Amino acid sequence: MSRQSAPAAVDAVFHMHKIAKVYHMGDVAVHALRGVTLDLLPGEFVAKSTLLNILGGLDVPTSGEVHYRDHNLTAASREELTRFRREHVGFVFQFYNLIPSLTALENTTLVSEISENPLEAEECLRMVGLGDRLHHFPAQLSGGEQQRVAIARAVVKRPEVLLCDEPTGALDYATGKIVLEVLDRVNRKLKTITAVITHNSAIAAMADRVIRISSGMIAEVMKNERRASPAELAW
Amino acid sequence: MRLTALDRKLLRDLWHMRGQVITVALIVASGVATYVTMRGAYESVERAQQEHYASHRFADVFAQLKRAPNSLTAEIASIPGVSVVQTRVVVEVNLDIPDLNEPAVGRLVSIPEHQQPMLNDLFLRQGRYIDPGRHDEVLISEAFSSANQLQVGESIGAVINGRWERLRIVGIALSPEYVYEIRGADVFPDNKRFGVLWMSREALGPLFNMEGGFNDVVITLAPGASEAAVLDRLDQLLEPYGGLGAYGRDDQISHRFLTDEIAQDRITGIFVPSIFLGIAAFLIHVVLSRLVSTQRNPIGLLKAFGYSDAAVAVHYLKFALVAVMLGTAAGAPLGIWLGQGLAHMYQNFFRFPVLMFVAGPKLIVWSIAISAMAACLGALTSLRSVVALPPAEAMRPESPPQFREGIAERLGLARLVSISARMILRNLERRPWKAVLTVIGMSFAVAILIVGFYFFDAIDYLVQVQFRTAQRDDVTVTLAEPHGEQARYDIRHLTGVLRSQSFRIVPARLRFQHHSKRIAIQGLESDADLRRVVGQNLDVARIPPAGLLLTTKLAEVLGVEPGDTITIEVLEGERPIRQVPVSGTVDEMIGLSAYMEISALNRLMREGPSVSGAYLSVDSEKLPMLYSQLKRTPAVAGVAVREAMLESFYRTIAESLRISTTALNLFACLIAVGMVYNGAWVALSERGHELASLRVLGFNQREISFMLLGEQALLVSASIPLGFLVGYGFCALLTTAMQTELYRMPLVVNAKTFAVSVLIVAVASLGTGALLYRRLSRLDLVAVLKTRE
After folding, report:
1. Burial code of A188-201, b = ≥16 C-beta within 10 A, e = fewer?
2. The model's pTM
3. Less crowded by CB within 10 Å, the N or C end of chain B?
4. pLDDT, tens digit (0-9, with 9 covering 90-100), for B155-174
5. Which residues from B are below 8 Å from A152, CB to CB?
6. How is residue B136 annotated by DSSP?
7. Which residues are within 8 A (CB) of B182 and not within 5 positions of it... i.e. 6 or more apart?
8. Phi, psi of B594 (to 5 degrees)
9. Domain boundary assignment for chain A
10. Within an 8 Å CB–CB cutoff, is residue A190 touching chain B?
11. CB-based contacts of A223: which residues, under 8 Å, 6+ apart?
12. How far is A107 from chain B (nearest CA, A)?
């Protein structure tokens, strides 16, 4: 896993420059980000939601610029952002957001069908340890299993970046760990940049780089010399 | 009054769901409006009829005869059960109306020289009663006056007993006898060419050799008297005087039409609003179930705070009631407005002294009650689930919906369906009843549209059969009296006549076992092509060389079948009584008729080649000359012009029908919009989260729109064939329910009707789909990352 130094903007997949995001909620302006500058490199496993929304092309910053390779996401139209998500980004949600009317395999296939060079849906489900649950509907799966389906669904398109928003937030300790193991395995195997948003500081140990954000600003950027395996984590 | 916190929540919920509330309210408004309009029209016309009949002493029994001396009046009056007798002179003459090419027929009805209360009394709309001693003064009927724009003070020409007379209009009048002013055998009223004129008995008597005599009698019955017994006795008394058979109100043509119309209003006044309110109830069910399922948490909270189950249920019931009452508040005034329009339209066909559209407080209270019932019915299941929900469970999110493989996959057809399509199918299959009810509701929209357009199809077809296939003459000339061979020759040599075919009409009573019917037997030439007898399926019936050809309806009334022999009591001339076999039946759509071959009829009458008139084919350029010749021919009692009748028909009846159908069709569109909009809204509300997730995963708006709208499109598509069936069923039901002795609507639904109905529903659905497509572009993609549904 490459771990070049931060300013190597040339190789960076994402380059964010002084991005700020202000949400107007009634009369109150919430400054979610106040001028964050950050690069993300291939294969990195880093750790706030607004940041993730902007990275994922769901939202545009109030000011500043975001580049994905040679695309300027801040200037992109809605259609371009959709295409960007479709081609390059995998999402894992806190509450899995599976389609209840589709089986595990179909949920995964749904995404592979709209991708240009997808992995085998079945293979992805095997990779997350659900080879024997292919034809189960979400209502027949536990929370952890549903999240693993979500991960399979996210990676099936071979995304360049996997964005996970509190992926263990809705899970108990044991299942949470299983999910983290799956994320770790996928990251190592597919070399996908994996950005995990979490409030659980214990998870930080399994990241290449930990970016602590406080009051909308980067409070600290920390590099782990060694990525802990999820099994070692405890909280 | 201070709003409780719960009521404030109600107001916010209503505002938040205004789209749903408005569509439900609109459909309720349509239902209430049709109810108020039709029920109100039914009540108003019935009331106007009763008042008019009572205040102007509409007779109970009617009889026409050749001529009887006035001395017979006392004998008639002494029939047990007879209350009041009035004798009259009634004759038909040719009129010459200024600005009217064709001759018109005037029915002159005698009235006392000095105004006095009488049976079938007149209501004077304008002008004055006739002056005693002024024998050229007449009152004319309102329908005739307005169709020809005849004013008080103007004069019209009439051929009276061979002499050209000038009649001065001194007043315009209405009579309970002519509320619906139509000439006996006509299919549609033609107020331009047929009118009633009232003239002094003293003037009319001498002109028609009726001094000291009468040819028409009307009677009112004493309370509790037997009409049948009076009719029998009266027939016996009148027989020596050429009685044409007495009859009661049921066979009085104006009464018959009016009563049939009222009965039809009553049926539609129940039928149509039921559909609308049924659909409104269903929509309330759909919307409220969704509201309750999204508000599980607040419901749990309210219960946890100590609100009773009933209080929470009432809160949601109020939601349904407010939506429905909004609709009622809009629908009732709309109904009154439409009703006033309808009453105004009725004035063109039914002439009452006063026809006020009245929607009384009782009607309004009923419409509120009925729509409230619809609300309660629609809310029932949701309220039950509100009551049954334990607070603790309510605070937890709803367990994820259970799905299973759809029927296509279980049948092994999975490969044929895309994943998106599978989602659609499984969603539908998860709640099959909802899908079924939605399809049924939508199909009603299609069905109502079909019914609306069907009326045009039926009437067009009827006109086609009656006025194009059966009746192909240009002009029908009816003679005052039957004439011999010479008349045939004279008619054939009238100006412009290309061809002529004679007919003979004989008034008779047909008897079979205990059934009897007064009817005019029509003798036609067997190879006549200017007037043919045509059944519903456009099959031309051959006139049998001997025996009778009856319309199916007449055969049904008499209880006869081909092969039976019936008794004919002729009511003319020597009044022979004959036994004649029924040779066949024909399912004509209009009236009750009995046909015979003309020479067979002449033989039956033991007469020479006698004719009552002729059907003419005329050189159109010479029509004006023919008309002016006919106007002054005393032997001619009446002239009917086919094209003129058709034109008058299209101008009046078809036009009214177009207006009322347009209103109904607009309402039907609301059903389509309401069903699609609410169905899709619920789907969006249930699956918005899922769809937003897919947007995040990179699906574009078109793709997710397909998933949402595809489901609605499938439902709409499924509803179309069903709508065809239901619509056709409604048409069949209506033709049966609205069938009278006078009309039988053919069950003919044109392909165009189906096509236009589908087109309207499709456009309404697409419009709604476009609206939702826009809503889908505003899905909150960020929220789905953080929230459970």
Report:
1. eebebbbbbbbeee
2. 0.80
3. N
4. 998 887 777 889 999 999 99
5. none
6. T
7. B188, B189, B190, B194, B253, B254, B257
8. -130, 125
9. 42-59+77-232
10. no
11. A3, A208, A209, A210
12. 9
Two tokens at B594? 């009995």
pLDDT tens for each residue of B262-275: 888 888 888 888 88
Q: Is B426 on the interface with A (CB under 8 A)?
A: yes
Which of A83, A89, A106 faces B422 most closely, judged by CB atoms?
Answer: A106
CB contact under 8 A, B400 and A139: yes
Q: Whole-angstrom Cα distance, residue B251 to residue B238?
A: 18
Q: Which residues contact B130 (CB under 8 A, 6 or more apart)?
A: B111, B113, B137, B138, B139, B170, B171, B198, B199, B200
Rounded CA separation B682/B680 (Å): 5
Given a contact cutoff of 8 angstroms between Cβ atoms, the answer to whether B626 and B495 are in contact is yes
B785, A94: Cβ pair inside 8 Å?
yes
E strand residue ranges, B153-212:
155-160, 163-174, 194-200
d(CA B42, CA B262): 6
Asked if residue A19 lies in contact with residue A36, where contact means CB atoms within 8 angstroms, the answer is yes
For chain A, give the mean pLDDT: 81
- What are the structure tokens assigned to B232, written together? 């029998």
Compute CA distances A15 → A32, A194, B339, whole Å.
18, 15, 71
Interface A-B: count of C-beta contacts within 8 A: 94
Q: Does domain A42-59+77-232 have CATH number 3.40.50.300?
A: yes
d(CA A14, CA A159): 14
Compute the residue count for chain B. 789
B689 touches chain A (CB under 8 A): yes
What does the alpha-carbon distance between residue B76 and residue B58 come to, in Å, rounded to a whole number?
A: 18
**CA distance to B192, B466, B471, B503, B554, per residue, from B600 (Å):** 36, 25, 22, 12, 20
Do B231 and B66 touch, CB atoms closer than 8 A? no
**Banded model confidence at residue B379, pLDDT cuts 50, 70, 90:** very high
- The token duo for A202 is 């214990």
Range list of β-strands (E), B555-697? 565-570, 577-586, 594-597, 611-618, 636-641
**CA-CA distance, B463 to B450, in Å (whole number)?**
19
Chain B residues within an 8 Å CB radius of A138? 400
**How far is B577 from B575, CA to CA, in rounded Å?**
7
Q: Is B559 helix (H, G, I), strand (E, B) or coil?
A: coil
Q: Do B335 and B4 contact (CB within 8 A), yes or no?
A: no
Supply the ipTM of this predicted assembly: 0.80
Band (pLDDT 50/70/90 cuts) for residue B670 is confident
CA A81 – CA A77 distance, rounded (Å): 6
For an interface test with B, give the residue of A101, A108, A147, A199 to mutate (most B CBs within 10 A). A101
- Its sign, for the CA torsion B627, B629, B631, B633, is negative
Mean pLDDT of all residues in B44-59: 94
Which of residues B494 and A212 earns the better pLDDT score?
B494
Residue A143, token pair as written in the block: 């929370």
Where is B781: in which H helix or E strand?
Answer: none
- Ordered by start, the domain boundaries in chain B are 54-256, 413-470+644-789, 497-618
CB distance B179 to B49 below 8 Å: yes
Give the C-alpha separation, A215 to B135, whole Å.
109
Q: In this model, does residue A101 exceed pLDDT 70?
A: yes
Closest CA to A78 of B761, B372, B702, B174: B702
On chain B, the residues whose CB falls within 8 A of the CB of A94 are: 785-786
Is residue B65 within a helix (H) or strand (E), and if so which, with residue range? Answer: strand B61-69
Compute the nearest-CA separation of B412 from chain A (Å).
15
Secondary element (H or E) of residue B520: strand B515-524
Instruction: With beta carbons under 8 A apart, name residues in chain B contacting A58.
Output: 696, 781-782, 785
